[in-house]
Design goal:
Blueprint (H helix, E strand, L loop, with lengths): L15 E8 L2 H11 L13 E5 L2 E7 L17 E6 L4 H9 L14 E3 L4 E7 L5 E7 L21 E11 L2 H10 L4 E5 L4 E6 L2 E7 L16 E5 L11 E3 L3 E5 L6
Parallel strand pairs: 1-3, 4-7, 8-11, 12-14
Antiparallel strand pairs: 1-12, 2-3, 4-8, 5-6, 6-7, 9-10, 10-11, 13-14
Length: 260
């Protein structure tokens, strides 16, 4: 991918406001997000689940019994991908916070910080207890300074997270999914649907479209479809209160204008 032009930048605030994922290991997942990572709980948790604040967004989890039939007819244990945007000049510090919850995933060369020159970004990854691939991404075209603590004290840990940057959507046909998203007003930002991978949207919020059972980068863990609800703004074809199903088991919801 060397020499591939960088896709367009965006300096807009994170537009993915709330994401609800499914997990078959609720207790372990909750202990990981609220205990090990120390994220504050957020209101509106699904029945039997929980929700946490991630910057200016909310990440929620709903329970799905192992092997249950999921939205869209999928079966098995869901494996999702979610990326959290962090201050672009503090990824190393943020990665140390994440590593206290789970070991950082290393590439074949042993490096844990992944350089994405074509995305003008660096990332680190971990696996949550339920098999979700969690990424911290520093986008260098999106400078942001975390609000200071009390009396102007420096902030650390979860306070370095700006919001939700990416969410994975599984599908048997990436091309058809991209066409569906483009019909709603989203645009292909990077990738080639024919390869089973495409990023749709912009730097303020990307929908990562992947073929079902394709390994989530940088792991060998398959993208197993499960219910995903993504609430976001800036999609012309979405109407408040009218969920739109996309991919194998995902749906998109418009954020009301007064929440933009």
């Amino acid at each position: 991918m060397v020499g591939v032009p960088a896709p367009p930048p965006s300096d807009a605030p994170p537009r993915i406001r709330r994401v609800t994922l499914a997990t078959a290991r609720m207790a372990d997942e909750q202990a990981w997000w609220t205990g090990r990572l120390g994220l504050a709980t957020a209101p509106g948790a699904p029945q039997g689940g929980f929700a946490v604040r991630v910057g200016d967004g909310v990440l929620a989890f709903e329970p799905v019994p192992d092997g249950a039939r999921l939205r869209g007819g999928a079966t098995g244990t869901p494996s999702h991908h979610v990326a959290l945007e962090v201050a672009e000049d503090r990824l190393v510090e943020a990665s140390e916070w994440l590593a206290r919850a789970s070991p950082l995933i290393a590439l074949q060369d042993g490096e844990t910080i992944v350089d994405f020159p074509n995305w003008v970004a660096h990332s680190v990854y971990v696996m949550s207890p339920a098999g979700h691939v969690v990424e911290l991404i520093a986008r260098h075209r999106r400078p942001w300074t975390p609000p200071g603590g009390e009396d102007g004290a420096p902030v650390h840990g979860a306070a370095l997270v700006r919001g939700i940057s990416e969410v994975g959507i599984c599908t048997p046909d990436v091309g058809a999914l991209v066409d569906r998203l483009e019909a709603l007003g989203e645009e292909l930002w990077f990738g080639d649907p024919q390869t089973g991978f495409a990023a749709v949207g912009d730097e303020s919020g990307l929908l990562i479209c992947v073929r079902e059972w394709r390994p989530w980068f940088p792991t060998d863990h398959a993208a197993a479809p499960g219910p995903v609800t993504i609430e976001l703004c800036g999609v012309p074809g979405l109407v408040v209160g009218e969920p739109v199903p996309v991919g194998s088991a995902a749906e998109l919801l418009a954020v009301p204008d007064d929440e933009d």
